[in-house]
Design goal:
The complex is a heterodimer of chains A (about 220) and B (about 110). Chain A is α/β, with parallel strands linked by helices and about 220 residues long. Chain A has ten helices and four strands; from the N terminus they run αααααββαααββαα. In chain A, α3 crosses α4 and α4 packs across α5. The N and C termini of chain A lie far apart (about 40 Å). Chain B has one domain: Cyclin A, domain 1. In chain B, about 55% of the residues lie in helices and about 0% in strands. Chain B starts with a helix and ends in a 5-residue tail after the last helix. Classes of the chains: A alpha/beta (about 220), B mainly alpha (about 110). At the A-B interface, α1, α2 and α7 of A face α2, α3, α5 and α6 of B.
Chain lengths: ~220, ~110
């Protein structure tokens, strides 16, 4: 397949544009390979040559990350919305609660915090890019940006407004900074007018950004 | 910049006075970036004991400031990974230089690189 064949689609991490056999292909987007793409190939081949990691392990890890998408986080939120006992279990022990929905969150500890009328939570990683990857996948570019990391902790309302989010004055905004060992997960406020919706319909209202806390859940 | 700010590590930017807007556009990761991400995650996995996540953070945070400032996220990861693999004795700088030359020659032969 030529690089041209890959130009369209794959806006979602779970779409496998490249077949598994092609995950190690020397396919370069946007022109000839740059120094970093070449360094990636060199380090990878040396790791394979030395038996530190195997091609099969690397392919499996890429596929594993492709499968960790915000849809997992959305399922967890929707279930917490409809089942208050589950929501409490999620706050008490995220790993076990996620396992109830067959979602594996092995790795850094995840901590659920709930947004309400009184308090809105939003998380960040001021130092780099720690993120609840197990349930949201690889973080978006803006989350890792200097602008987001520096501004969110001092002027969260202006950052939220850039994301189109305006909260009432009486709502406290709490910004939480992730660490390498512990990452947050926001249970957004359940939107009004969603009483009759099924859990699947509710999950569609829960976006990646609403779990980070830069937006609220979508309105039905 | 205040004295307190100048004493920070280059990565420690929470609360700094940055007034530019956030670029919220979504970027699809390239295949090369996905591989760097997966390799790094394999290497710092606790069961492999090559290096741990704090050593990885440290390697990124202590990159020369021009690299930290001007290179993108996965470029920083690639440089940090190189530094760690050399530092841990997994491979030498000479081996990497030789392999890079091999890869360049191979890609040129294949007509992939300019």
């Amino acid at each position: 397949m030529s690089p041209h064949d890959h130009e369209h689609g794959d806006d979602h991490g779970h779409d496998h544009v490249y077949g598994d056999d092609d995950l190690l292909a020397e396919v370069f987007e946007g022109g000839p390979p740059d120094d970093y793409e070449i360094l990636e190939i060199a380090l990878r081949e040396l790791l394979f040559d030395k038996g530190v990691i195997t091609p099969a392990e690397l392919r499996a890890k890429i596929v594993e990350w492709d499968g960790k998408t915000p849809e997992n986080g959305a399922r967890i939120v929707a279930h917490a919305w409809v089942d208050p006992a589950y929501k409490q279990r999620l706050k008490d022990d995220f790993y076990s609660a996620a396992a109830e929905l067959d979602i594996d969150t092995a790795g850094p500890q995840l901590v659920a915090v709930e947004s309400t009328d009184d308090v809105h939570h939003v998380f960040c990683c001021t130092l780099c890019s720690c993120y609840p990857r197990a349930v949201l996948g690889i973080p978006p570019e803006w989350y890792k940006s200097k602008e987001y990391r520096s501004r969110i902790v001092v002027d969260p309302r202006s950052v939220l407004s850039e994301f189109g989010t305006t909260l009432p004055d009486h709502t406290d905004v709490r910004v939480i900074d992730n660490t390498a060992e512990s990452r947050y997960f926001v249970i957004p406020k359940r939107p009004e007018g969603t009483e009759g919706l099924s859990e699947e319909e509710l999950a569609k209202l829960v976006t990646r950004d609403s779990i980070i806390g830069v937006t609220e859940a979508l309105k039905p | 910049m205040s004295e307190a700010e100048t004493n920070r590590g280059q990565h420690d930017i929470g609360g700094l006075n940055v007034d530019s807007l956030i670029d919220r556009s979504e970027h699809r990761l390239s295949l090369s970036e996905r591989r760097v991400d997966a390799m790094m995650n394999l290497l710092f996995a606790p069961d492999r004991k090559i290096f741990n996540i704090d050593e990885m953070r440290r390697a990124i945070e202590t990159l020369p400031s021009d690299l930290y400032e001007n290179y993108n996220y996965y470029e920083r990861w690639t440089l940090a990974m190189e530094k760690l693999l050399i530092g841990k004795g997994i491979m030498t700088a000479d081996e990497i230089t030789a392999k890079v030359a091999d890869v360049r020659a191979r890609l040129k032969e294949a007509g992939v690189s300019a």
